[in-house]
From TrEMBL:
<dbReference type="InterPro" id="IPR016032">
    <property type="entry name" value="Sig_transdc_resp-reg_C-effctor"/>
</dbReference>
<dbReference type="Pfam" id="PF00072">
    <property type="entry name" value="Response_reg"/>
</dbReference>
<feature type="domain" description="OmpR/PhoB-type">
    <location>
        <begin position="132"/>
        <end position="231"/>
    </location>
</feature>
<keyword id="KW-0804">Transcription</keyword>
<dbReference type="InterPro" id="IPR036388">
    <property type="entry name" value="WH-like_DNA-bd_sf"/>
</dbReference>
<keyword id="KW-0805">Transcription regulation</keyword>
<dbReference type="InterPro" id="IPR001789">
    <property type="entry name" value="Sig_transdc_resp-reg_receiver"/>
</dbReference>
<dbReference type="Pfam" id="PF00486">
    <property type="entry name" value="Trans_reg_C"/>
</dbReference>
<dbReference type="InterPro" id="IPR011006">
    <property type="entry name" value="CheY-like_superfamily"/>
</dbReference>
<feature type="modified residue" description="4-aspartylphosphate">
    <location>
        <position position="53"/>
    </location>
</feature>
<keyword id="KW-0902">Two-component regulatory system</keyword>
<dbReference type="InterPro" id="IPR039420">
    <property type="entry name" value="WalR-like"/>
</dbReference>
<keyword id="KW-0238">DNA-binding</keyword>
<keyword id="KW-0597">Phosphoprotein</keyword>
<feature type="domain" description="Response regulatory">
    <location>
        <begin position="4"/>
        <end position="117"/>
    </location>
</feature>
<dbReference type="InterPro" id="IPR001867">
    <property type="entry name" value="OmpR/PhoB-type_DNA-bd"/>
</dbReference>
<feature type="DNA-binding region" description="OmpR/PhoB-type">
    <location>
        <begin position="132"/>
        <end position="231"/>
    </location>
</feature>
Length: 231
């Protein structure tokens, strides 16, 4: 299936470079030079992934990301010249699924795009329903086939990364996963020291679950070890 990717960057040279590489991979590409234009495009269905620059005049990328997350779980790859740990954490906390620092290797960007699309849409493809596609923990229901989560029938909006983490833990009740386990199984990349991606996404996931589950906590921290879900 041909995926449609939106590039949001006020630098036309960078946007054009990304477009060339994406087009060569067979993707359909749309571009927006500012945040407001990006949000207008996102009002329509059909965008499968967003490549979003942070530093733009007017409405910056962080604000755009937060507004997208109010209604959509479309994967977002954030790009920025800011390379500090807190900059990355801030980007991920606003709802981005991944974060790359400028200048970047276009081939690495393509690899990140493919990885995000694979994680987001592979499990959502139509398939014969199997027992392990549906996980119930008390009143929480996790559907691998439709990539959806609900509590007492109410949908809980999760990003693809958040869904992947929740499904991983829920598929192995009682088992403790450390950050390295989670990163390598969800991101499909080698874990490296001081990688805070798991911590940030776990924080967002737990915050959403507690809010939607009326204060109930199902993800537990085993201090100094990792995270687990009890059935």
């Amino acid at each position: 299936m041909n995926r449609h990717i939106l590039i949001v960057d006020d630098d036309p040279k960078i946007a054009q470079l990304i477009e060339i590489y994406l087009s060569n991979e067979g993707y359909t590409v749309s571009k927006a030079g500012d945040g407001l234009s990006a949000l207008e495009i996102m009002k329509e269905d059909g965008i499968d992934l967003v490549i979003l620059d942070i530093m733009m005049p007017g409405l910056d990328g962080l604000s755009v990301c937060m507004q997208i997350r109010e209604t959509k779980t479309t994967p977002i790859l954030m790009i920025s010249a800011k390379d500090g740990d807190m900059d990355k954490i801030t980007g991920l906390m606003t709802g981005a699924d991944d974060y790359m620092v400028k200048p970047f290797n276009p081939l690495e960007l393509i690899a990140r795009v493919k990885s995000l699309l694979r994680r987001t849409y592979f499990n959502a493809q139509p398939q014969q329903m199997q027992p392990d596609n549906l996980i119930r923990i008390q009143s929480l229901e996790i559907n691998k086939q439709t990539h959806t989560v609900s509590f007492e029938g109410r949908p809980i909006k999760l990003t693809p990364i958040e869904f992947g983490i929740l499904h991983l833990l829920a598929s192995h009740p009682g088992r403790v996963f450390n950050s390295e386990d989670i990163f390598e199984m969800i991101w499909k990349e080698k874990y490296y020291d001081s990688n805070n991606s798991v911590t940030v996404h776990m924080s967002r996931l737990r915050e959403k679950l507690v809010k939607e589950m009326d204060g109930e906590k199902i993800i537990h921290t085993v201090w100094g070890v990792g995270y687990k879900i009890e059935a």
